[in-house]
From TrEMBL:
InterPro entries: IS66_C. It comes from the Bacteria. Residues 3-40 form the Transposase IS66 C-terminal domain. This is Transposase IS66 C-terminal domain-containing protein. The lineage of its organism: Bacteria, Pseudomonadati, Pseudomonadota, Betaproteobacteria, Burkholderiales.
Length: 54
């Protein structure tokens, strides 16, 4: 769990949103495409951890 949270943070993703996304999508996801659920592949689908500074 710590590595999931750490990977999300390193990719600028809200860790809670990332874990929720993975848990809701993993059951229906093909095992051959599991890398689609890695943080850097879902970053555009999730809000950033912190808002961009102007």
């Amino acid at each position: 769990m710590y590595s999931l949270i750490g990977s999300a943070k390193l990719n600028g993703i809200n860790p809670r949103a990332y874990v929720e996304y993975v848990l809701t999508h993993i059951a229906d996801h093909k095992i051959s495409r599991i890398d689609d659920l890695l943080p850097w592949n879902v970053a555009d689908k999730l809000k950033p951890a912190t808002p961009p500074t102007p």
